[in-house]
Automatic annotation (TrEMBL):
Gene responsible for this protein: TNFSF18
GO cellular component terms given for this protein: extracellular space; plasma membrane
Swiss-Prot/TrEMBL GO biological process terms: adaptive immune response; positive regulation of cell adhesion; positive regulation of leukocyte migration; regulation of macromolecule metabolic process; regulation of primary metabolic process; T cell proliferation involved in immune response; tumor necrosis factor-mediated signaling pathway
Similarity remark: Belongs to the tumor necrosis factor family.
Membrane protein topology class: Single-pass type II membrane protein
Task performed by this protein: Cytokine that binds to TNFRSF18/AITR/GITR. Regulates T-cell responses. Can function as costimulator and lower the threshold for T-cell activation and T-cell proliferation. Important for interactions between activated T-lymphocytes and endothelial cells. Mediates activation of NF-kappa-B. Triggers increased phosphorylation of STAT1 and up-regulates expression of VCAM1 and ICAM1. Promotes leukocyte adhesion to endothelial cells. Regulates migration of monocytes from the splenic reservoir to sites of inflammation.
Classification via Gene3D superfamilies: 2.60.120.40
Transmembrane segments: 74-97
UniProt organism field: Bos taurus
Location of the protein in the cell: Cell membrane
THD domain sequence ranges: 93-218
MF terms (GO), sorted A to Z: cytokine activity; identical protein binding; tumor necrosis factor receptor binding
Name this polypeptide is given: Tumor necrosis factor ligand superfamily member 18
InterPro entries associated with the record: TNF_dom (IPR006052), TNFSF18 (IPR042380), Tumour_necrosis_fac-like_dom (IPR008983)
Keywords: Adaptive immunity, Cell membrane, Cytokine, Disulfide bond, Glycoprotein, Immunity, Membrane, Signal-anchor, Transmembrane, Transmembrane helix
Length: 225
């Protein structure tokens, strides 16, 4: 079978061009004209579309039916936008903040009596118990301390009521209200070697069977050194 001749010519009339007599056009010359022709067609359609939109009469009924958004709609839209911004901001923080999550649970709790130090088995690698109500930090990280202090309302001693949560013997939180049960703790950045303890101004100022404190390693960011 013989191969078709690709060098055919177009001799028919081309209604898209000017009124000049169409001349024979090869495939090569048509390939050069087609892109320019398509561009002119697109420009023409865009001009016609804009002209049509400008000349289109406005619907009187649609204007009458339009209503301004109520304050509830504005409040809803504003809330959605704020939530989306907060989510985006949080995602950026956790994306660019170099965090290294703690491997395995690292938690310890002392009390309430008669229970003393309670730790998972094997003992966690982030802390080490050194005495009652006291432990030593073994790993840099962000820690969460939680606890409860129950005052002994029957205490009649002279010493003023005070319970301190300390880091290296410096108080980081102090409780002085002896009329109600209070919570102790918060999120703190500790380093290896820090000693954390909970002390009382007098031995019998608190009900130790209702008082306890614990610590939990949240994460160990790489920037803590």
């Amino acid at each position: 079978m013989s191969q078709p001749d690709l060098n055919f010519t177009i001799t028919g009339s081309l209604p898209f061009f000017s009124g000049k007599k169409p001349a024979a056009m090869s495939c090569w010359s048509l390939g050069e004209v087609a892109p320019r022709f398509c561009f002119k067609c697109l420009s023409f359609l865009q001009t016609m579309s804009l002209s049509h939109m400008e000349n289109m009469p406005l619907s009187h009924s649609s204007l009458q039916g339009a209503q301004r958004p109520s304050w509830k709609q504005w409040l809803f839209y504003s809330t959605v936008i704020i939530v989306l911004l907060l989510c985006s901001f949080s995602a950026l923080i956790f994306t660019f903040l170099p965090l290294k999550t703690a491997q395995g649970p690292c938690v310890a709790k002392f009390g309430p009596l008669p229970s003393k130090w309670q730790m998972p088995s094997p003992e966690p690698s982030c802390v080490n118990k050194t005495a009652d109500w006291r432990l030593k930090i073994l790993q840099n990280g962000l820690y969460l301390i939680y606890g409860q202090v129950a005052p002994n309302t029957a205490y009649k001693g002279r010493a003023p009521f005070e319970v301190q949560l300390r880091k290296n013997e410096d108080p980081i939180q102090a409780l002085t209200n002896n009329s109600m049960i209070q919570n102790v703790g918060g999120a703190y950045e500790f380093h290896a070697g820090d000693v954390i303890d909970l002390i009382f101004n007098a031995e019998h100022q608190v009900l130790k069977n209702k008082t306890y404190w614990g610590i939990f390693l949240l994460t160990n960011p790489q920037f803590i050194s």
